[in-house]
Specification:
mainly beta; 1 helix; about 45% strand; globular; 7-stranded antiparallel sheet
Length: about 120
Amino acid sequence: MATPLDVSALATANRLLDKFGISAILTAKPTNGFDPLTGEVSSSSTPITIPKVSPPLAYASSEIDGSNIIVGDYKVIVARSDSVSSIDRGDRIEVNGRDGVVVNTNEVWSGEEIAIWILQCRTGG
């Protein structure tokens, strides 16, 4: 159940993303399926358009440690919405023509619900 803080935090995140956000395309990590009748393995995923995310944000030089966060990694902030229920490592995201893979997710909770995800993304992958 959403608390008043949940409602307030999500409203603030959405207000900021409405003002400054851009659209992105999130493609979940492909899931493999096996058809026992044909013996074939198939892979599929469906892209989701997210109407408002933050522009790609560079990490400060003090945050780059060379192993967990490397030069070229960037952050993308995504507010919880009806179109996005989860974001996982290995998902791909295209923001402002920049294609990357999600290497880490940080869920920011507001009470009982996720308000935003802060994604660590890496070009290529």
